[in-house]
Design brief:
The protein is of the alpha+beta class. It contains 55 helices and 26 strands. The chain has a 7-stranded mixed sheet with strand order 6-7-21-8-17-11-12, sandwiched between helices. A 5-stranded antiparallel sheet has the order 4-3-2-1-5.
């Protein structure tokens, strides 16, 4: 306990308002406050409780001990209890309670002990992120945690190379098992496994097995461990887990057969019963757990929240993981089920001394079946026992109770054996295959126990705790002594409790255990006799042993924690642990192999778990005798436990211990409920208070000089501050504390007695309070004066504005008066003018109306007169015409009669004359002349007659028209006359009507007056109604406006909502894209890790056996279509000749793979062409269905011709390929130069093939064009089908033609004939003429009448002239057609010459230009045909023709492109060989004479074209490739290149070499160069991957190389920013898109390695620079720290500051800029840097309570502002780096804002959007005031925050993922640098490269 304060200290500390602790029956300790100062000699203290009541506390008159002082509030809630100024029980209890209840913190340090309070709730503080956060941290730098203890043990094992132990102790239900489990999980996570058999998973998998067979539900814990275990986790020299070993202690076997109320048996039994429905477990014949005696005694077989069936699945999975197969598992389950059935075996009394089992007992039968034993033997020996004497053996019956005990003992033995067997097999599975270098042991052992009835188990448990407490005390004492000696503090022996007397009482000679073993050996030993021996031996000799007053069968032992009363009943039986040997013999004879294995006689291992042949401990092994195995089995349980405990203590003493004390906060398993009584009881029992007492006995408070100076600088004057901090602290302490015994000065620290820090804190608080009052006084004065000045200025301003307002109002009144007068003047003038205009308008209107009326009357009169005159004129004319017509008709009739009469007379005369011959002769004289005259006369008469008839017809028409007009006029006049009559009749009636109307008018006027009166009344009503309606309308308008406004607001809200939804959707899509990109990049990282692992394994195995050929990676599969086609064709040509060669060579395998690829492509192309042909044939069949049979035959022949031409082209193509392969074989078969010389066979074959290829190319071009024209003409043939006059004849002729060529020629001739102009009009005229000639014969007699014969004669002559003119026209057209054909022939010749010239030019053009030229030519030809077709008259046919032409043209262009592609590939190869031949000829040209040169034929392809300009390429030899890679990649120093040369120079050089390989079309060189480059970059990064400069350099060059591949790829999307020269430098032969993807993946890997390298550099700086270092000096003070010292916030030499981080960021940025890294990539790197800084800082803030204060929030915000300023300087504010710091900024703001009211909670919720709810609550819980003026956050406020944030949808993860890497992108960044301008420096040693 704390030392008694001295008189001086008491008078100074026990003053008014000082707070103390007083004892309390309910709360153990209660806080109170002194009402008045304490004076020496006072016997009573007047105190005021927290509830306001006052009491008097009496002091002990003998000791005069004052109550414990309470620590200042700033020390409450400390991470380490030793940091408290006052070290005593109430301070410890209160600190734990505050941390547990208010801050929800379950871990607290107490010196070297970690106190863990069971929260009875699952907390999110054990994830992998938390493990990573604690990994590598010092134990005092983070908040207390089981992981911190694990890290400390792991670090000390690696640093000191000393084995470690973690001792976890506590009561049942305190959480020991869980703590041990998390410790093992930490080791398994941070260390990993050294082998591939997942040892760490097996170590963790042992937990569910051991929990199922060793844990059970008790009244205090649902998962209580009923045994102790010590797990050694083995590590190799690299500190990776290699195995583990488990030792168990004192299994509670009695639980198998008995459980108290509300308790359960071991979990495995209930798991089996819950899984009894499984098919494989049917043979066990299990039922519900309520049906078995061994599982239903507790009456509560269910644990809330636990599914036993699922737990069974986990257990079986763990069995499989640890190598226990299904057969062994079934054996285990059989034995466990047999134990349950054994418990249900019913034993009945036969008599008082004997018992019997009823025959055919079902459960015993099942037990025997499962165990493989006989029913008779087992039932016999359960009710009998064998007694042996010296001479005879007796079999004796036993009573029922003894038989039941024997049954239960057998069940316990079987379970114990099975338990040990499982432990042995678990150890075997965890056994290390390699030598163990060190280990960490985790001891999960029962804590001190005391119950109402304590028996043998509690005695052993408390005995073990006595031993552990002694070891703990010695270790604490040792550490204290080492600390004092290290600091050279005078050491005085501290009196601490030594429990060695209690241990001697138990284990010494004649001790309790010794007497118990002696009593067990006695034949008639009993518990009573043993108790009497204890009383006689120890009652008077040992003060720790007592006898209860009311019992003679119990004893009391004074343990270190408490007194415990033990009942002697059962001690001897449990110690002997006897079992009927005959029952064991029966079990050994079992048919179950596993059962026999359990009871084999083997060397006993105590404790269980040591594998055979392996030393468990690192201490001396136990040297036993050879026959020890036989005696070991007879040892008592107490002796075995004592030996195993001694062995355990030897192990712990040989290791460095770490202590975890688990505390059970309440007995009801309520979450975060603290019972002070139970807590104090456990604190006393677990040794925590002993640690406090030892610390308080000396100097518990310890400060470094710098920390003391920083904290208490306010107590010093300026003159007291010296350069030497140590001397300064000494001077100040001598002034502040007069008693020199209260402190000691060490080498690096100041040691204080208990309470002195509180005294210094009081002085500091008083000084700060005085300073605050002075600051407040000054500030209030300044604020009052500022307020007065503002009020004065405001009053002056108000006066000025009021006076100005009054003046403005006067001026406004005068202006309004003048304006009113002017308005009145103009208004009066306007009124008069309006009245005058109205009168003038009325007069003019009246005049106008009157004058109009008079004019209308005059017009009507004149109109009537005019109409009357017109009628008279018409009537008179009609009468005159009627008289004339009648007179004319009469005259004509008279003339006709007279003429007829005269004609008859003349006819008679002529008949008489005609009868005479002489007259006939006279008449015949001059007959022809007469005929001519008559004919002429007839013609004249006819002409006159026609003229007269025409004139007569005109007259008749005019007469008819005039008559019709007159008729209509007469009708109208008659109608008008009738109307006039009717009107005259109507005048009278109208007059009468007028009189009647006048009368009605008078009546109407009278009615009108009545109506006007009614209307006036109605108008008034309507006006009122209108006013009301207007008012309602106004309201409706208002409502309408409101609705419109609401609609607008809603629409605006909907728009905003849609915009937000759109933004969220966009953000979600971007997030998904980033996640997908991140997932892909993570896969790349994993792939890289696996590759590195593979390489490491290869290196470790030293496998250097060369394999034939080479193995391709993904990057070597990149090859474009041309090279794959070439290789596949070459492989096809050589397949026959190379059938017997070895295909395992690298080149052959590559060719074979490419050949397979090309065959697949050709098959696909073949299928595509076949499908296209089938489609066309289907189209042709549909066309033939619409046409007649003859046309089908003609079209079928044409299709046959087309297929024949295609086959011919394909055969020619294959022929060219075959010739090319032959040529390559000839060139490749002979390596000598003579074989390729001029005149050699290979040379001739090459030239012949070259010429033939050129000729074949021209022929194929023409054939393709012919084929296109023929295909186009098919449609024309269909169009001309309808115009053919004799289609049947044509069809027959075509059918007779067998040859396809004849069919085509005939078809083309027929088409040309039909298209000829002479056949367009001829058929119609000929038909007309034939119809005339074939008409019936004319009647010549009738023709002769009226001169018709003459007409016939004239017709014949006209016909002859017509025929003659047509004949001349045909002859003329024939001549013109002949001339046109001659011109066409001449044009064809010219076209042929032009085509030949174009072909010759195309051969000299590149392949792309050649294709464009041929396409342009074909388009021109089709355009001409199109123009010809436009001259046709049918637009529908023309449109159909155009559609079909376009379709056919597209199809044929695709086919032609494929054909040209193949030809282009062949010509490229020919070009390469021609160039090689030209090079070979170069040496022989000089020896050839000029004459010979003239005689030889000129071959243009053999003339190499000279490159006058540098093309930006570098040529190298194949053997120099490795040298290039070595000098440019492997041995290149980034620093020299970055400083002296242009950025990205290696990438440019590599690309220029690649361009040359592409230029010469060397696919092998391209592939080899790219593969070597990629592999070399990976190699150099693997070798120097931790060098940021190297990684940055190759990231920049890889990106530049990737950009060059894109920029010069020839793709339009990458050529937009290229210059003309750069476009000329594009790759021409290979498509490297696949390699671009490989390089992109490589760049991603380099980027991730860069981030990793950068993180490794920044990681040590972040916490120190961002959190611990005081950037603003004096803002935050240093709080007292405990034994776990943290890093000082004062910048010592070697510590990192914010300036260190900024310098490092500048270094990163400058290096990347020097290397020419893309700006966008730099932004992404900076964003990742800031994310790491923010995440690491925030994670440490969330795990460090000492950092969560107001002043630290200010420091963080200042540091963040410095980082933002750095971003502004580098112009990187838009890179997204600032947003990554948003969580840290909001956390800093959260530390500084007010945290009291609901408004503050709302502000916090709206402000902290980037923080999760768990993070916000964590910060609020950790918030710790550094001064008295700050206040803690109340629990109510935190709950309010949790309530408000309850609806947030977010991850429950507490810490940020520091390993997260943003997905990287590489935006295309073209270079403006021209390749031809790049110069290679000599320092690179690349002299073997040649500029091309």
């Amino acid at each position: 306990m704390a030392a008694i304060p001295t008189i001086m200290a008491a008078s100074e500390l026990y003053t008014k308002y000082a707070r103390v602790w007083i004892p309390d029956a309910e709360e153990v300790w209660k806080s109170a406050e002194l009402v008045k100062d304490y004076k020496q000699g006072d016997g009573v203290l007047r105190l005021q409780l927290e509830d306001g009541g006052e009491i008097e506390h009496k002091l002990d008159p003998q000791t005069k001990n004052l109550p414990h002082l309470r620590n200042p509030d700033i020390l409450v809630g400390e991470n380490d209890l030793t940091a408290l100024s006052y070290l005593h029980e109430p301070a410890v209890l209160h600190n734990l309670k505050v941390r547990f209840i208010d801050s929800k913190l379950i871990y607290t340090y107490c010196g070297i002990v970690l106190v863990a309070i069971n929260p009875y709730e699952s907390l999110p503080i054990y994830g992998t992120d938390i493990i990573n956060a604690y990994s590598g941290q010092n134990m005092g730098d983070m908040d207390p945690h089981i992981f911190a203890v694990g890290e400390e043990a792991y670090k000390q094992m690696a640093r000191d190379e000393r084995n470690q132990s973690i001792i976890v102790s506590g009561e049942s239900g305190a959480g020991k098992t869980v703590s041990a489990k998390y410790a093992m999980r930490y080791f398994a996570t941070v260390s990993g496994s050294a082998s591939e058999n997942n040892v760490e998973e097996k170590v963790l998998a042992s937990n569910p097995i051991m929990e199922s067979i060793g844990n059970a539900k008790t009244t205090r814990n649902d998962n209580s461990s009923r045994f102790g275990k010590y797990i050694e986790i083995g590590f190799d020299r690299r500190f990776h887990i290699i195995g583990a070993n488990m030792r168990t202690y004192l299994l509670e076997k009695s639980r198998v057969v008995f459980q108290a109320d509300e308790e359960r048996n071991y979990h495995i039994f209930y798991q089996l019963c819950a899984s009894s429905h499984l098919p494989e477990l049917k043979i066990l014949k299990l039922r519900s757990a309520d049906d078995f005696h061994y599982t239903n005694q507790g009456q509560n077989p269910v644990i809330n929240g636990v599914d036993d069936a699922k737990e069974m699945i986990n257990t079986r999975h763990a069995f499989m993981l640890l190598g226990i197969n299904e057969s062994y598992q079934m054996g285990i389950f059989q034995i466990l089920a047999a134990i349950l059935h054994l418990g249900n075996v019913e034993v009945k009394d036969r008599d008082s001394d004997s018992s019997i089992i009823p025959p055919n007992n079902g459960h015993l039968t099942v037990f025997c079946e499962l165990m493989g034993v006989t029913y008779q033997d087992m039932s016999h020996w359960l009710c009998h026992k064998k007694l042996k004497t010296a001479t005879e053996t007796y079999i004796k019956t036993v009573p029922r109770l003894q038989a039941i005990n024997s049954r239960d003992a057998l069940a316990k033995l079987i379970y114990a054996k099975l338990f040990n067997w499982i432990v042995d097999h678990v150890n075997h599975a965890l056994h290390a295959s390699v030598k163990q270098h060190s280990f960490i042991g985790v001891l999960d052992i029962y804590g001190f126990e005391t119950f109402e009835i304590n028996s043998f188990e509690q005695f052993c448990i408390n005995y073990a705790n006595e031993k552990l407490q002694q070891q703990f005390n010695m270790h604490v004492f040792k550490l204290e002594q080492e600390e004092y000696l290290k600091e050279q503090i005078p050491w005085t022996l501290i009196d601490f409790y030594d429990n060695q007397p209690c241990i001697n009482l138990i284990e010494s000679k004649m001790g309790i255990l010794d007497l118990l073993d002696e009593e067990c050996k006695m034949p008639k030993g009993a518990d009573d006799s043993w108790a009497q021996k204890l009383y006689n031996t120890h009652l008077k000799t040992c003060a720790l042993f007592e006898k209860p007053r009311m019992s003679n069968r119990a004893f009391i032992i004074q343990h270190f924690a408490d007194k415990v009363e033990y009942q002697c009943d059962g001690f001897l039986e449990k110690n002997k642990d006897t079992v009927n040997e005959d029952q064991i013999v029966v079990l050994k004879a079992s048919k179950l192999d596993l059962l026999v294995e359990l009871f084999q006689d083997e060397k006993a291992t105590t404790p269980t778990g040591a594998p055979p042949g392996k030393r468990v401990l690192s201490v001396k092994p136990d040297k036993g005798r050879p026959n020890q195995a036989s005696k070991e089995h007879k040892k008592t349980v107490g002796l075995q436990f004592r030996n195993s405990l001694n062995l355990l203590m030897e192990t712990l003493n040989a290791t460095t211990p770490h202590y975890v004390r688990c505390i059970k906060p309440n007995d009801f398993k309520h979450a975060f409920t603290f019972d002070p009584k139970r807590a104090v009881q456990q604190l006393r029992a677990c040794g925590v208070l002993e640690t406090i007492r030892i610390s308080a006995a000396g100097f518990p408070s310890r400060w470094t000089y710098q920390e003391f100076f920083s904290r208490y600088r306010v107590l010093m004057k300026q003159k007291d501050v010296l350069a030497d901090r140590k001397l300064t602290c000494k001077n100040v302490l001598e002034q502040l504390v007069q008693d020199q015994d209260k402190y000691q000065f060490g080498k690096t620290k100041i040691f204080f007695r208990a309470g002195q820090v509180a005294f210094l804190e009081k002085l500091r608080a008083d000084k700060l309070r005085v300073a605050c009052i002075r600051i407040q006084k000054t500030i209030r004065c300044w604020l009052a004066r500022k307020k007065y000045l503002r009020m004065k200025q405001a009053s002056i301003t108000i006066q000025r504005y009021v006076r100005g307002h009054q003046a403005r109002r006067l001026v406004k009144f005068m202006r309004r008066t003048r304006s009113a007068i002017i308005i009145q003047k103009y208004q009066r003038m306007y009124a008069e003018r309006t009245r005058f205009k109205r009168k003038k308008a009325a007069a003019l209107a009246m005049q106008c109306i009157l004058r109009a009326y008079m004019a209308r009357q005059l017009y009507r009169r004149l109109l009537r007169e005019n109409k009357a005159v017109l009628i008279q004129k018409m009537v008179r004319g009609w009468l005159a015409r009627q008289w004339y017509k009648r007179s004319l008709e009469a005259l004509v009739y008279l003339q006709c009669c007279v003429r007829r009469m005269r004609a008859r007379r003349e006819l008679k005369k002529l008949k008489i004359e005609a009868r005479s011959v002489e007259h006939f002769k006279k008449l015949n004289v001059g007959m022809e002349n007469k005929i001519m005259q008559l004919q002429r006369r007839v013609d004249e008469q006819n002409k006159d007659n026609r003229a007269v008839n025409e004139r007569l017809a005109g007259l008749e028409n005019s007469h008819a028209i005039e008559s019709e007009k007159m008729r209509k006029e007469v009708t109208r006049l008659r109608t008008a006359e009738e109307d006039a009559k009717n009107n005259s009749n109507k005048v009278t009636s109208l007059l009468e009507e007028l009189a009647r109307l006048r009368q009605e008018l008078k009546t109407t006027q009278s009615e009108k007056k009545v109506i006007e009166d009614w209307a006036e009344t109605y108008r008034d009503e309507m006006e009122k109604m209108v006013a009301e309606l207007k008012e309602q309308n106004g309201l409706l308008k208002t409502e309408k406006d409101d609705l419109n406004r609401m609609i607008k607001e809603q629409s605006q809200q909907m728009t905003e909502k849609m915009q937000r939804a759109l933004q969220e959707e966009t953000h979600q899509l971007e997030t998904d894209l980033n996640e997908e990109r991140s997932r892909y990049q993570n896969l790349l990282t994993e792939h890289l890790r696996l590759e590195e692992r593979h390489d490491d394994l290869k290196e470790s195995l030293s496998v250097n056996v060369p394999k034939p050929g080479h193995r391709r990676t993904d990057s070597t599969h990149s090859s474009n279509e041309s090279e794959s086609t070439y290789i596949s064709e070459f492989a096809e040509s050589e397949e026959g000749s190379r059938g017997g060669e070895d295909m395992t060579r690298g080149g052959d395998m590559s060719t074979f793979l490419k050949m397979q690829k090309r065959v697949t492509e050709l098959e696909g192309e073949k299928h595509g062409l076949q499908n296209e042909l089938d489609r066309r044939e289907e189209q042709f069949q549909r066309a033939r269905a619409r046409d007649d049979e003859e046309h089908k035959k003609a079209r079928g022949a044409e299709l046959e011709y087309e297929s024949l031409k295609r086959q011919e082209l394909d055969s020619e193509n294959k022929k060219l390929k075959h010739d090319l392969n032959e040529m390559r074989q000839l060139l490749g078969g002979n390596a000598g130069a003579n074989t390729s010389a001029p005149g050699s066979p290979a040379y001739k074959v090459l030239l012949d093939q070259l010429n033939s290829s050129n000729e074949e190319l021209e022929v194929r071009k023409e054939e393709v064009l012919i084929l296109r024209s023929q295909l186009v003409s098919q449609k024309e043939a269909m169009q001309h089908k309808e115009t053919m006059t004799e289609p049947v004849a044509y069809a027959v002729d075509i059918h007779k033609m067998k040859d396809a060529g004849e069919i085509t020629q005939a078809y083309m001739g027929l088409k040309d004939t039909n298209r000829s102009p002479r056949f367009l009009h001829k058929p119609l005229e000929v038909n007309e003429l034939v119809n005339r000639l074939r008409s019936p014969a004319p009647d010549y007699h009738k023709m002769n009448e009226d001169g018709e014969l003459w007409l016939v004669y004239e017709g014949l002559k006209e016909t002859n002239r017509l025929l003659e003119s047509q004949l001349q026209t045909q002859r003329h057209s024939h001549d013109n057609e002949v001339e046109a054909l001659r011109g066409e022939l001449q044009g064809m010749k010219e076209e042929n010459n032009r085509q030949q010239q174009l072909l010759a030019q195309n051969l000299q053009l590149p392949p792309e230009a050649r294709i464009e030229a041929s396409l342009q030519h074909e388009i021109t030809r089709l355009t001409n045909e199109n123009l010809e077709m436009q001259n046709t008259d049918d637009p529908a046919k023309f449109r159909e023709y155009r559609i079909n032409v376009i379709r056919r043209m597209i199809d044929l262009m695709e086919q032609l492109e494929k054909q040209d592609k193949t030809v282009r590939k062949l010509k490229k190869q020919l070009k390469v060989f021609a160039k090689k031949i030209g090079e070979l000829e170069g040496g022989q040209v000089e020896s050839v004479s000029p004459g010979q040169t003239v005689d030889e034929p000129i071959r243009p392809v053999n003339i190499p074209r000279r490159e006058k300009d540098f093309q930006g390429m570098l040529e190298y030899k194949k053997e120099d490739e490795l040298k290039l890679v070595k000098n440019l990649i492997l041995e290149l120093k980034p620093r020299g290149v970055a400083v002296n040369l242009i950025p990205g120079l290696p990438a440019y050089i590599l690309f220029m070499c690649l361009r040359h390989a592409d230029y010469v079309n060397d696919d092998q060189r391209v592939r080899s160069l790219l593969t070597c480059t990629i592999n070399s970059i990976k190699k150099i990064l693997k070798k120097r991957g931790d060098d940021f400069e190297t990684v940055s350099f190759w990231l920049s060059n890889t990106c530049r190389f990737l950009h060059c591949l894109k920029q010069y790829s020839g793709d339009d999307q990458f050529m937009k920013h290229n210059s003309t020269k750069q476009n000329d430098h594009c790759l021409s032969n290979f498509d490297l898109a696949e390699y671009r993807q490989v390089l992109s993946d490589l760049a991603i890997q380099i980027y991730q390695q860069l981030i990793k390298c950068m993180e490794n550099i920044l990681q040590p700086m972040i916490v120190s620079g961002m959190l611990e270092h005081e950037t603003i000096q004096g803002v935050s003070g240093v709080k007292p720290t405990g034994l776990r010292k943290r890093t000082s916030s004062i910048a010592d030499e070697g510590t990192y500051t914010l300036e260190s981080i900024l310098r490092q960021l500048n270094a990163f940025h400058s290096i990347m800029c020097q290397h020419g890294t893309d700006p966008e990539l730099i932004k992404q790197v900076v964003k990742q840097q800031f994310y790491i800084i923010g995440a690491v800082t925030l994670n440490n803030l969330l795990l460090r309570k000492d950092m969560c204060s107001w002043s630290k929030g200010m420091q963080i915000r200042y540091n963040v502002s410095q980082l933002e300023e750095w971003l502004r300087e580098k112009n990187l504010m838009n890179c997204g780096a600032k947003e990554t710091l948003e969580p840290l900024i909001q956390a800093a703001q959260l530390l500084q804002v007010k945290k009291k009211t609901d408004e503050d909670a709302e502000a916090i919720c709206s402000m902290c959007k980037a923080l999760s709810t768990a993070q916000i609550v964590k910060v609020l819980n950790l918030y710790t005031p550094l001064n008295e003026f700050e206040e803690r956050v109340s629990v109510t406020f935190i709950r309010t925050i949790q309530t408000r944030l309850r609806d947030r949808m977010e991850s429950p993860q507490l810490l940020m993922d520091t390993k997260m890497i943003y997905p990287v992108t590489f935006p295309f960044n073209p270079s403006s640098l021209a390749l031809e301008t790049i110069q290679i420096p000599t320092s690179l040693n690349l002299n073997f490269l040649t500029r091309v």
